[in-house]
Model the fold of this input.
Amino acid sequence: MNVDDVVVTFTPGSLTVLNVVLGLIMFGIALDTAPADFRVVAKHPKPFVIAILAQLLLLPIATFLLTLVLPVAPSMALGMLLVACCPPGNISQVLTHRSGGNVALSVSLTAVGNLVYIVAMPLSITFWGSLHPTARTLLRTVELDPWRMLLEILLIVGLPFALGLLIRAKLPALTRRVQPVVKWFSLIALIGFIVAALVGNWSVFVQVLGIIVLVVTVHDAIALALGYGTAVLGGLGTRERKAMTFEVGIRNAGLGLGLVFLFFDGLGGMAIVAGWWGIWDIVAGLVVAGLWARHTKRRTGATTGDASVRASA
Done:
């Protein structure tokens, strides 16, 4: 089977549900974003600069090189590049808290980073995809329009994010009640959608299971290592290193999956990479965060970080 010729199918109704779920995720991030989060970045820009360089430059470069080393089909290579160009996922804050990291920094990086990615993502995908020796052929066949992608991302990401910021500012009491519900409901719904996508196309997925597991495991490990490594080189503290690890290592693969159906006609290799990444990076992130928390507790005798660190960042 040539995975480049496989099309992962979804009904228009299913794609509408996916877009709604992705919008809810961004809405939930905005509800958890305070003006102070933006001021933290303005007052202490160093971690943000390091994170943006790692996400927009180092991760795509590492991914590009990885696609040349691993035995991946062109559509899988394009899927890896797509995931690498996605914004950070909001579960990074949960993992940062679980590991005892700087949650305030994680929230700030996710909030500001997602705004940057509204413009940067379509340009980044087009740039890296067009450079790839095999994936660029697929990119030409779909005639990817970065401006149309920008418009779609504005609708899926930008509009819900702006609406969430507005509601938080105008209705703080309502925000406190609904934010946890929106956050966890959207995350569970996304995981459910991805699982349904893989199960619904199981005959395709099972034929490439071995290489997909290898590719996504290695790719995700490199993303997490890049986050930690750049934080170390940047001279950040231990708690900030933990936040940076998950900000770079956890990508919004659900958004990537949505873009596969919107712009790449459900291209098999891309869809499977994005779908499996969406599940695996949560599993890997929970494992890393749990081990980190145990190590910290064993070394210091303290519990993991508390969400109240937002006020002290």
